[in-house]
Amino acid sequence: MTTTDNTKKVDLVFLIDSSNSMKDEASALSARLNAAIEEASKACPSDLRVEFLGIEGTFGNSKFDKSARSYLTGTLGVEDGKIKGRKASAVGNPAQEDVAPAAEDIIKYFDWRKGAERNLFVLGDESLYGGEMVLNAERIKACDDAIDTALAHTVKVHSYLGTPHHTLPYPTPADEEAMVKEYKRLALRTGGEHYIYTKGIADFSQVLKNAICASKVPHQESVEEKKEEADKLEGKDPVDKSDNTASGNSNLCEQLPEIVKAVNTLADVLKGLVESCAPSSNREKHACHCHEHDAKKDTGNNSAEQSGNSNSGVEEQPQVSEFVDKTMFTDGDWNQWEAGPVGHDCQLVDYAKQKTKGLYFKTAANKAHAGTILKKTLVGLEPGQEYSFLIRAKRVIGKFSTPKLSLSVDGKDISGVVELITTDEWVTIKGNFTAGAGPTNLEVISHENDSNGNDYHVGRLVIANPGNPALDI
User: What confidence tens digit (pLDDT) does each residue in 305-349 have?
Assistant: First the structure.
């Protein structure tokens, strides 16, 4: 592929279990490579170097035409005695399935280019040490060792777990779950991506493109980004990122969303109170209703308030009609919302727990994605009155470019640009605006043009008076 001086160097080594059950994966990956590299060069250009190695064996008519051992010892001159992986000539087929030890050898001795992001993509369909469909302490330790070695040498390990051979299925669903966890753990702890296909062969065009793009991200950044997911996978308690260890802080963090909601509600109430009760140039000192009540109670004279006499010093406040326009997409009803110029290929999806629906915006290559994704013209708002515009959105997929959304009314931004960082976490985006005399034009704006990642859902849209319960999520 074409490179330039200012593109990042990326080294990517594919290391495959060379037993017969992985032949289909080797062939499919080899066939898709050129197209995937071309796609990746458009989405995330880099100075890419790719190498294909088999573990104690090779596959004919594929890219995997040399073994890891022969490359390290024959091409690079590494002493055979330093190679951790077992020899097939000594132990037979299990050596071809020594994914974790072979990974350590590549991590330590491969001729990584200076300044390049180091990436290793391992592919297997059994355990990471000696094959078999069940784990034991020795196989788990092999994974631990590979993780430690990768971290010590700043190498990201991407993992692929394929479909087992029909003659050697998983003994139980629990064994399959444990194997999936192990391949995910190897990837997450080293900052890599994991691809699990225990029920069929992957679309390697997409897998390769994703892996190449992910390979550009700096190692330490990837490790930190995936730490929370790795901790969750291993059942570890999340660490309080603020490093507050005092008693009760953990519970306080868990309650943060509710606290924020309560504070926002209180702010709306106080704002209304200030607007109602604050002195103005044409009011007496105690012009608001609360003080007026106290003053009249002291004098025993309530007739002015009861009769609406203007001499009472009380200004009549205009009555604002309660307004709510809420779109939940229930029964497929868009409530007059429509896709904007860059709202490509959005589709309705179900949220079973909420008994409602939302829109899935899945970005596609060769299309623009920055601009208006949703729009609506709304009538019935009272000119000069303030309203709130709110949506709920969440990131999906969780790889590569992050979605970035904001709200606009009549061509003016009313919210900041909100980046959807955490996968599958609903985020509220909200802003206030003052209605004009004519129809109101509402828009949801995307600020990320990349089609690599940048997938998200929009699940609820509400326009209402500030403080209206419909705005409480």
Answer: 444 444 444 445 555 568 999 998 887 889 999 999 988 778 888
Asked, for residue 167, whether it belongs to a domain, the answer is yes
Core vs surface per residue 130-156: b (16+ CB within 10 A) or e: bbebebeeebbebbebbbebbbebbbb
Instruction: For residue 206, give both structure tokens.
Output: 């997409």
Q: What is the pTM of this model?
A: 0.53
The predicted-structure confidence for 271-296, as pLDDT tens digits, reads as follows 555 555 554 444 444 344 434 444 44
Between the alpha carbon of residue 211 and those of residues 43, 52, 144, 187, 407, the distances in Å are 12, 14, 22, 12, 33
Domain co-membership, 78 together with 226: yes
Take residue 280 and report the two structure tokens written for it.
Answer: 């103005």
User: Rounded to the nearest 5°, which phi and psi values hold at 457?
Assistant: -115, 145
Query: Does residue 46 share a domain with residue 176?
Result: yes
CATH number of residue 69's parent domain: 3.40.50.2300
Asked if residue 329 and residue 227 are part of one domain, the reply reads: no
Residues 6 or more apart whose CB falls under 8 angstroms from that of 445 comprise 371, 372, 373, 405, 406, 407, 408, 413
Tell me how far CA of residue 466 lies from CA of 143, 265, 380, 389, in angstroms: 54, 9, 16, 9
The residues near 263 (Cβ < 8 Å, ≥ 6 apart) are none
End position of a domain, from candidates 192, 214, 233: 233
**CA-based nearest residue to 106, from 92, 120, 93:** 120
Q: How far is CA 219 from CA 116, 223, 249, 313, in A?
A: 10, 6, 31, 69
How many domains are contained in the chain?
2
For residue 282, is it within any domain?
no
Residue 243, burial from CB neighbour count under 10 angstroms (0-12, 13-18, 19+): exposed
What gap in Å lies between CA 392 and CA 473, rounded to an integer? 9
DSSP state of 221: H
Query: Residue 462: which CATH number?
Result: 2.60.120.260
Q: Residue 401 belongs to what domain range?
A: 324-471
Ranges of beta strands (E only) in 25-98 are 47-55
DSSP-derived 3-state class of residue 96: helix
Task: State which of 233, 249, 275 marks the end of a domain.
Answer: 233
CA separation for the pair 59, 20 (Å, rounded): 9
